[in-house]
Automatic annotation (TrEMBL):
Species annotation: Sphingomonas ginkgonis
Alphabetized Gene3D superfamilies for the sequence: Tetratricopeptide repeat domain, TPR-like
Protein name in the entry: DUF924 domain-containing protein
Entries under Pfam families matching the protein: DUF924 (PF06041)
């Protein structure tokens, strides 16, 4: 977590190929080794839950940018996040860290997860993150999924997605 929280806010969201390569070199081994663990293994402490959520949600988006593999541990990240929230571990984290614990709900294509994301980010009280949560929710409410993932996941766009021009991530 020291590495992740040592990055600037811009670096978290920029999509820099050099940073992606560094993250892949530093963390792909951990990601591969731990991805078969059950979510409960990451719920001993708030920091452990947060580290699991980052390892399985945020880091794959850097390590495998543009490829379906970036979404392959989303369910594990979401299960870790849900367990952490259900056990109140999130309340023991600083607000800026909670953002990354709540991200797996925002990245989910399930409407219930999107609604939970919105509630969590509203409770967090950070307007920028709440705006992103709303935008993600709106896309999933409209399309039932994130159309910008279609090509990577080999999905055929629906007529509505084609007509809308397949909303891009933000």
């Amino acid at each position: 977590m020291t590495f992740w929280f040592g990055l600037s806010d811009e670096q978290h969201w920029s999509g820099d190929p050099e940073l992606d390569a560094e993250i892949r070199a530093r963390f792909e081994g951990w990601w591969t080794a731990l991805r078969q663990q059950p979510a409960e293994e990451f719920l001993a402490t708030p920091d452990q839950a947060l580290a699991g959520a980052i390892l399985f949600d945020q880091l794959p988006r850097n390590m495998f940018r543009g490829h379906a593999e970036q979404f392959s541990t989303d369910l594990l990240a979401r299960a870790i996040a849900a367990g952490a929230v259900d056990h109140g571990l999130d309340e023991r984290l600083a607000p800026e860290r909670r953002t990354f614990l709540y991200m797996p709900f925002e990245h989910s294509e399930k409407r219930d997860d999107q609604r939970r994301s919105l509630l969590l980010f509203a409770r967090l009280g950070e307007p920028r993150q709440l705006d992103y949560a709303r935008r993600h929710r709106d896309i999933v409410e409209r399309f039932g999924r994130f159309p910008h993932r279609n090509v990577m996941l080999g999905r055929v766009p629906t007529e509505e997605e084609r007509a809308a021009g397949s909303p891009e991530p933000f």
